[in-house]
Amino acid sequence: MANSHINIAIVEDNGVARLNLRNHLMEMGYADIGCYSHGRELKPVLKQRHFDLILMDFHLGLHKNGVEVVNELQKEGLIKPSTSLVFVTSDRMPMIIGQIVDVHPDALVLKPYTIRNLEKTLTACIAFNRYLSPVLKLMDNDEFDAALNKLDELLQGNQMPRAKTNMIKLRARLLTKLGRHTEAGEIYTQILQASDKIIWAKWGLIQSTYLAGDTEKSESMLEALLDTHLTNDKACEWLSRINIEKQDYPKAQQYMERIKDGELSLSAARLKAYLFQVQDRMDDAIALLEKKRESNRNIRERFNELSLDLARCYLTQAEGKPAPERAKHLQVARFLIGSASRNIHGQDIDIKRNYMTALANVLEGDLSKAQELLALQGMLEAGDMDIPTLSDAVHAWHGVGDLAKASELLDELERKLGKLPDENEKTLGSLMLVKNQETLGDKKERALAFNRQGLEFYQKQLFADAIDDFYQAYLLFPEEAAFSINLLHCMVEAGTREHKRASSEVLHNELSSQALSKANAQRLHDISNKMAKRHWLNTPPPESPATTSES
């Protein structure tokens, strides 16, 4: 059967609807179908296998909605561009449809649907996915330049004219990924000239205009979208984020106040609460989160996340008090941490709980208990941590005096920020990043301190310790050649080709492309010869500076 090799995941909390949908798909010839009642069931499966198509219901009962699930899975790289995403919902509210459109699904199926309509939609999605397969696979590997070139070839061929609009939309998104914001803006402008009612093109033009540096124009376009039911809330969130970047927190707050608390998305509520915090309005932050938490009591995942957000507020309150006055705030924080992990189990929630409990121990002055928690298995597996947990981790390791681990986790936090699909989360993460950077101190000073310590270990031939310190200096200041050369030299001396995210060959290539001082160039030449003898290089070592003719 033509469809038998297509892998499909159904995410639907209603058992009868899930079974009916599966039966419909089997009648259409699809055989490889996985069924899941919510995102937490799908997540571990996605770590093991790829799906060609995901059918996602919007309302998932006692769990996060489909858009929240998709955002979370995209953030963790578990949904790739080559996976077709089809949303299914009975909800026709503009606010809900707008949320779905924002995650760029391939199609939206409204309930009640006919089998014929469902089959037609899925067939079109799969055909489009196959046609774009060369582009999407490059996007899976973050090869956006090559993906854009391949997409332009397909557009020029024009063998799927009905899909041209979606291909142009994808082209604009790729240009944005590549930082070519003016070109992306031109595409959105052309679309809006044909019809000024296309809302996704309006948002795309606003984003491109802002990213191209014309903040004033983008703000003007957003102001025009206020006081309209369909666009007001999103425009307010966007204007608030722009003013946060300007550090005009009162004005950012004014825009957030224009959204009713009951209509704040989870990420918008968190952003608003953090805005209160940076303005020393902790009681307002707590009141907002408590209200949001209570309204989500029946959505367990949201309730747990909001419990942890509240706990962070109480930990921050405790931190700002003298040691004798911290007890009542820490008691509430511990209660909230415990309530968040009562109904949901797994390594991710354990890591969140352990880091926050370790922070409470640090604030109580019990560093030994904090260190016991930090030594537990999985506590340094940063790949699975979200931004708030990474921020907690930086704070906790700094609290017990391990600046190397704190610095490394802060680098991971910064690296993850750019991959967040939700702009509110990205802005909130940026605020957390700044706060942690202030706690740890100046980057260059930290890099120099790690480098000095690394040199001391190197002189004692304690290469494992030296490598890690040089690595920390390199993470903080990769543009400083001395740090890179020290790390590479130590790795070669220790016979270590890889250390965490550092590769000896990549380091060598980076240094070979830099303009080095004569002393550093000679060091790189000597290191290169050692690497060549160990067969660590795919390219010949550079000539010695001593034999290179002077210009």
Automatic annotation (TrEMBL):
Keywords, ordered alphabetically: Coiled coil, Phosphoprotein
Top-rank taxon, per record: Bacteria
4-aspartylphosphate: residues bearing it: D57
Domain (Response regulatory): residue spans on this chain: 7-126
SMART domains attached to this UniProt entry: REC (SM00448), TPR (SM00028)
Keyword Coiled coil: yes
Coiled-coil portions: 282-309
Keyword Zinc listed: no
Matching InterPro entries: CheY-like_superfamily (IPR011006), Sig_transdc_resp-reg_receiver (IPR001789), TPR-like_helical_dom_sf (IPR011990), TPR_rpt (IPR019734)
Region of interest (Disordered), ranges: 531-551
The protein, known as: Response regulatory domain-containing protein
Species of origin: Bowmanella denitrificans
Organism placement in taxonomy: Bacteria, Pseudomonadati, Pseudomonadota, Gammaproteobacteria, Alteromonadales
